[in-house]
Design brief:
The protein is an alpha+beta fold. It has 4 helices and 5 strands; from the N terminus they run ααβββββαα.
């Protein structure tokens, strides 16, 4: 079963790792999310070395079918956010728990 880390738990983890107050952790998280969201919406790429890259991609216009009626419908082109995991993040996820703990300890 996969667990989901919600915003409250993420803020608590930030507090635990940094010693910040809960309010500071919430403000820091909000600042990161807002900065990344705004930059990607403007068309910029946000690259966090060792973690990944956020960018805006264009999804082309296409035809699809309504599954209830079988009618063909046209879907307009749209922009969507995309994330590509970096090699450091990929290798960390592939590690066993013991190696992950050693890696976290080594990076501080």
């Amino acid at each position: 079963m996969v667990n989901t880390l919600n915003k409250r738990e993420l803020v608590d983890a930030i507090v635990e790792q940094t010693g910040w107050t809960k309010k500071q952790a919430e403000e820091g998280l909000a600042a990161v999310v807002n900065t990344v969201s705004d930059a990607v919406a403007e068309g910029d790429r946000v690259q966090i070395p060792g973690f990944g890259t956020f960018e805006k991609r264009e999804r082309a216009a296409r035809e699809a079918r309504n599954p209830q009626t079988g009618e063909t419908i046209k879907i307009k082109k749209t922009n969507v956010p995309a994330f590509k995991a970096g090699s450091g993040f990929k290798s960390y996820v592939a590690m066993n728990k013991k190696d992950q703990a050693a890696f976290r300890k080594s990076r501080g």
